[in-house]
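Sequence design from tokenized structure. All designs in this work follow the same two-part layout: the structure record, then the generated sequence. An example of the structure record is given first.
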């Protein structure tokens, strides 16, 4: 998945490079900075001493020593002073310079913390918005998998209004998993029971167009390129190639929904695309209800949807 959001200690993530939210001295400090230095061992500090510090918004790279990655990219985020002192542009520069440095060193997998969102006081929702915006902009032109690692839920906040709207929608639509509406013939995970599944296979088998074929047709109808679609869907290029080259390929449910979102399909068309892969949206699945909320409200930003799914401890859209 090009952008992943995980609740994890960044020092435990195995990847090509992790990004350190450092201070100007690069000699360690509190929070993420201190944790990375402790986990890496003294060798990291000795190398950092030779770098001569780092200006706010810039980035420098070192070895990773005892960390489970190849490199540590050190970037210095801005201290929040109310937003009138160029903080946003400096934070944008942190992500741009870090990603460009990762590209220069041929990194395929990179993990970021939410830069400046801790002791530096940057509002967490704005820090998250900038992180997702800059990473997704970079990924439109580059192939890389980027992880945003957050240590706890307090470090990851969607807007209170959106959260309230989703909770209200769930309360209105969600059916507890032990109750299944017979008219829908759906289990709580959105899979069809045995007889309905058999009927569905017979129906689908009689239809010429597969999921892959329908997806490619929809991409053409929307006037999109393949790359625009799979990047907007937060899907890896290799997986898209499998789907394109194997007409009978069955994607996972999150992947199928991700394409429906990327294509900005209305509810009925999204349901048709899902049906081609053997899935349906169910009122007894909280994941499905949340996704349906965004589709019905024509909010097709996959990263916003994933932020909401993450908040409710649901699987994310994409691979």
């Amino acid at each position: 998945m090009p952008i992943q959001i995980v609740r994890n200690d960044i020092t435990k993530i195995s990847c090509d490079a992790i990004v350190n939210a450092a201070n100007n001295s690069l000699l360690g400090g509190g929070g993420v900075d201190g944790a990375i230095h402790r986990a890496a061992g003294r060798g990291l500090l000795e190398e950092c001493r030779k770098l001569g510090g780092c200006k706010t918004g810039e980035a420098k790279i070192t070895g990773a020593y005892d960390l489970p990655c190849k490199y540590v990219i050190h970037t210095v985020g801005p201290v929040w002073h109310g937003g009138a002192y160029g903080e946003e542009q400096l934070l944008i520069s942190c992500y741009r310079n870090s990603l460009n440095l990762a590209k220069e060193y041929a990194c395929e997998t990179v993990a970021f913390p939410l830069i400046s969102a801790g002791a530096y006081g940057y509002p967490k929702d704005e820090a998250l918005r900038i992180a997702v915006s800059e990473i997704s902009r970079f990924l439109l032109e580059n192939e890389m998998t980027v992880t945003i690692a957050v240590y706890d839920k307090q470090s990851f906040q969607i807007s209170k209004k959106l959260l309230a709207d989703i909770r209200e929608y769930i309360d209105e639509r969600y059916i507890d998993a032990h109750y299944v509406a017979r008219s829908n013939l759906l289990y709580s995970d959105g899979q069809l029971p045995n007889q309905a599944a058999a009927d569905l296979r017979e129906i689908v088998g009689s239809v010429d167009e597969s999921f892959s074929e329908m997806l490619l047709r929809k991409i053409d109808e929307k006037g999109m390129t393949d790359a625009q679609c799979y990047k907007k869907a937060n899907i890896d290029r290799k997986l898209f190639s499998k789907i394109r080259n194997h007409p009978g390929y069955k994607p996972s449910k999150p992947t199928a929904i991700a394409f429906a979102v990327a294509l900005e399909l209305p509810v009925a068309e999204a349901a048709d695309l899902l049906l081609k892969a053997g899935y349906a949206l169910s009122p007894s699945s909280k994941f499905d209800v949340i996704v349906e909320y965004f589709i019905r409200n024509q909010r097709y930003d996959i990263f916003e949807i994933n932020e909401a799914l993450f908040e409710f401890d649901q699987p994310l859209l994409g691979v």
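The two ends are 5 Å apart (CA to CA). We note this feature because it recurs in several other targets discussed in the main text.
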